[in-house]
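> @MW can you paste both from yesterday?
MW: sure, first one:
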Amino acid sequence: MSAGTGRPLGAEVAGVAEAVAAVAAPVATDAYDRSGWAARWRAHDWRLIPGEPTAPLLNMALDEVLTLRVGRGERPPTLRVWGWDRRSVVLGRFQSVRNEVDMAAAAREGVQVVRRISGGGAMFIEPEGAITWSIFAPEAIVEGMSFPESYAFFDSWVVDALRELGVDAWYAPLNDITSAGGKVGGAAQARRGGAVLHHTTMAYQMNVPLMLSVLRIGQEKLSDKGVTSAEKRVGPLRQQTELPRDTIIGHLTDHFRASYGLTDDAVTPDEVAEAERLVRDRFGTDEWLYFLP
């Protein structure tokens, strides 16, 4: 998910938005000077919030709540793994609903459409088809970095963990994790209140027909050949590793823990209550969803 105009996952990773575009030139994460990166990570006491089935709207609100709490020093820097309790389309902050989604098809297929606080493109999510997490950190952790470098920094541990699983992965600017087997996922950022939110979604498995029925972008462009091309461009992790989704998530968090330290944690009742209020007052309203009709 990007902080600007780039697409995170969904449309491109699921094979719609950029299925007919050229693949961005790969830039290995190691192309950046990583000499001080480990020290930046290890300077913080990281907490882990494991994933459990969560409503899409609550996922959106929790991102804001936890970002601001980390910025205010009320919560330590945190890695939160997302769980999903239903299918959804997650729109970027500045996307038009009617340009991106066939709302009638979404309703028919039981796909909830929500809008997040970061920029970037649409994500098509099925609960067992995606691996999503957020990192909440003080903004000082990326002080002096360019935007591309900050994306590479926040996803560097993921690239390393995927390589341990045998996936030939690398970072491709601005917001992609890709591999020799195809694009794996993408990221987005939002910065506010002295903190940076960096969230990433990776494709575990794909349901291209359902995605194409819900997302408008690319529907008129993709022929049957285009759909085949899209599937080849994306490299879902189930296809690349043959590992269960939970095993991959466990390896990612274990790698983070071994590299930088990670204490098990949970969302507090107060944080949940605040997020639920935000769902009622903002994220669950038509004014927010149709910010750009």
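MW: second:
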Amino acid sequence: MGETTRVQAPAEAVAEFLPVLAHRPAGLFSDFDGTLSPLAASPEQAIMHPRARGALVRLLAQVDEVGIITGRAALTAEAMVGIDGIDYVGNHGLEWRRHGQHVEHPESVASAGDVSATMTEIKQRVAGTVADDGLLFEDKRLSGSIHYREAKHPERVRDPLFAVASEVANAHGLVITEGRKIVEIRPKLVVNKGTALQRLIKERGLRGVLFFGDDVTDLDGFRMLHDMRREGLQALTVGVASPEAPSEIYQLSDIVLGSVDDLADALERLADALETTPAGTNPHG
């Protein structure tokens, strides 16, 4: 897109959401951390915005497909969101849960041992160095996250941590990616939030799609939706602003909301609007 998208008020955004969701079947998908939940110092401290959760429960009765697409493990996301009947796509697309049914990418399962070994070796390699400052290692089995948000000086930790993680991951046949104050260890597969969205859209035959995100890994989803629009899909990419948001969020978003609170407000307004229109009849009925 190239241009910077301005921040919109929730009411303005909803006016643009409605025509997209009028193309049925329609889907509404979102990242979790920094989007439906304010960023927390550590992963376990994150809490879903209560108004966003209530709105998603209502939207489940109005939109054909609702889902969470996250870097967290799918089971963890399901426990944190706590809404039955929606899709939980975890580990950036490596695993899927719906109604308690769990599916994992077979090649990622084969790499689980390498992920664990890589995380252990990185931890050993950085012990006692500047890169050890405030690290939190999160082994999600199919992928791993190393958080350095709690470091006293995160800017001093990033480069030495990234160098060690790159070397060790490469030795184990894995790749690394980055998020906000996070280094991710992943299998060497072309699987991301974009491929997850593409699969959902094609399997469910979706014609209208909204996707909400705030970080680098969400950009894969934004790019995929831009590509699929050329094939006729009606879609909007919706960024959530924050002081840490990468500049690409403003460039690749069709709409930018100013905060997690604004997203919760927009979802409530969307649920209100759909409940008062014919398109709001229950597609799951």
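> thanks! Residues 280-285 have pLDDT under 50 and may be disordered.
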